Amino acid sequence: MTELHYLNAVTALRLFRTRELSPVELMDAVIARTEAVNGGINALTETLFDEARSAARQAAAKYARGRDLTPLLGLPVAAKEKHGLKGRTLSQGLVAQKDEVAPANHPVIDRILGAGGIVHARTTTPEFSCATVTHSPLWGVTRNPWNPKFSPGGSSGGSGAALAAGLAPLATASDIAGSTRLPASFTGTVGFKAPYGRIPGLAPLSADHYRGDGPMARTVADTALLAEVMAGRHPGDHTSLADIPGAVLSESTHSGASVAGMRIALCIRLGNYSVAPDVEANTRAAAAALRDAGAVVEEVELPWTTESISRTIFTHFGHLLGPAMEDETAGSADLLAPYTRRFMADARRAAEQSRYLDGIQAETRLQAELAAAMVGFDALLCPVSAVAALDADGMYLDGIDAGTEHLEHYWQGHMTAPFNIANRCPVLAVPSGMADCGIPTGVQIVGHPFDDPTVFRVGAALEAVQPWSARHPEILALA
Predict the structure, then answer these.
(1) Contact 192, 215 (CB under 8 A)
(2) What is the DSSP letter of 395?
(3) Is residue 275 part of a domain?
């Protein structure tokens, strides 16, 4: 029987409505779990348990009356710290900004609270959410519940660790180069990188077409539920798109959803990524499972190189995110983590070498190559990360070893950034198996621009034939 703190959101809502479970009971179970295990993984920046218990009692009263039953009513939600909560700290992991306070809620927080969700905890990130590991001088090291030697990934590593450890059924995340999908992969959870504009962001960087905020959960259906709540036009973000009609994502995940007759492209290396053997084996097993479920799966190649992708993304960062980070840390750069200083230096160097126009031209070439590879297919399947794990406290200032190859930049070990370059494509990250080192691996399901329902349909089908959500890590004590 599923332990209460691991209950999925869709089931919890059904039990709330039938009065078989109270939101208070679920909140108490999640709080007890948090107090028992978070000390070993350090996934949270703060907890709001008193307020959360009060909100859970109010939700229980609404269920008792049978009125005002909003989509997330009574569900605990762990919020990434960068998603500001009015009156609470908004440091983004920076020591120099540890006392900064959010003047208003982030748009996704407003959407969650408006839907009845209860933000009971806030999750760790690296500084500025600019690394694929999650540690900072302010909050320390966040560890992977499956094996605390390793990182849960970044930048939404606290959210991934919290979900995997049973500290919340739902969590918020963001993604500018893989920051949702990498933690999902490394922690055995599900993460959705929505198409650009689908989920509103915070100005002015909401205008950055690489970035996006989104949901994480332990099941595909739960992720769809939170995505539907987050999505839609917002007056503070002029890039935001109209609402998704009805419950179209949730409908894509129902038990009768089928991939029979769908055509799925399988691409193991996305060009020349050095994919670890266990990652490749798990990706091929996921493809075989979809084939057994009735999909037509064919292998394709893409003409990309890690070097060109790295050059393209850092050109972009060099003209947008890098300067924003430098402005915000003027006078306090000596307090930054080494990985943050490295990121800013790489971005600055790329901007000196390439114009913004050069970056846009490179982006459109990659987008055209992806579109050509996906002609005749409904979706593309590939690994999330070419490397199976990252050390929890790793800086990776000198790159990373991938098989027999040494990569100049450790970001070249991840296979997520191409789909921020092609950021109108929805991408769902779902578990694919276990790596040899004892933590999960994941695959990306990439859709055509703005075709969100298809990636959820394929994800739900894969989850059905390769069930995962009942598997949970044994929290390991640190040596």
Answers:
(1) yes
(2) -
(3) yes
**Given this model, what pLDDT does residue 241 score?**
92
**Distance from chain centroid for Cα 37:** 22
Confidence of residue 246 (pLDDT cuts 50, 70, 90): low
- Pair of tokens at residue 386: 């070419």
**Predicted local distance difference test score (pLDDT) of residue 1:** 59
476 domain residue, yes or no: no
371 vs 1: which has the higher pLDDT: 371
What's the angle, vertex CA 265, arms to CA 263 and CA 268, rounded to 5?
Answer: 155
> Which stretch of DSSP H or E encloses residue 172?
strand 170-174
Rounded CA-CA distance 130/145 in Å is 22
| Mean pLDDT confidence for 133-156 | 98
Q: Residue 89: pLDDT above 60?
A: yes
Dist. CA 462–CA 466, nearest whole Å: 6
How far is residue 79's CA from residue 167's CA, in Å, rounded to a whole number? 12
For residue 473, tell me if it sits in a domain.
Answer: no
CATH number at residue 418: 3.90.1300.10
Instruction: Tell me if the pTM is above 0.90.
Output: yes
Residues pairing with 442 in the sheet: 431
Of 153, 181, 78, the closest CA to residue 455 belongs to: 181
Q: Count structural domains, the chain.
A: 1
Find the domain containing 35 and state its range: 4-465
The rounded distance, in Å, linking the Cα atoms of 81 and 125 is 7
- Both structure tokens of 311: 């050059």
Crossing angle for the helix pair 452-465 and 220-230, to the nearest 10 degrees: 160
Residues identified as active-site: 80, 155, 179
Q: Would 470 be classed as within a structural domain?
A: no
479 pLDDT higher than 60 = no
Average pLDDT over residues 62-82: 97
Q: Backbone phi, then psi, for 474, in 5-degree steps?
A: -90, 120
For residue 477, what pLDDT is reported? 42
331-368 residues labelled b (16+ CB within 10 A) or e (exposed) = eeeebbbebbbbbbebbbebbeebeeeebeebbeebbe
Angle at 133 between CA 127 and CA 136, to 5 degrees: 35
Residue 478: band (very low, low, confident or very high) from pLDDT cuts 50, 70, 90: very low
DSSP line for 39-68:
HHH--EEEE-HHHHHHHHHHHHHHHHHT--
What is the structure's pLDDT at 119? 98
- pLDDT mean over 324-336: 95
Nearest to 2 by CA among 423, 472, 473, 421: 472
C-beta separation of 198 from 213 below 8 A? no
Residue 116: predicted pLDDT: 98
Query: How far is Cα 434 from Cα 293, in angstroms, rounded to an integer?
Result: 21
Per DSSP, the three-state class of 297 is: strand
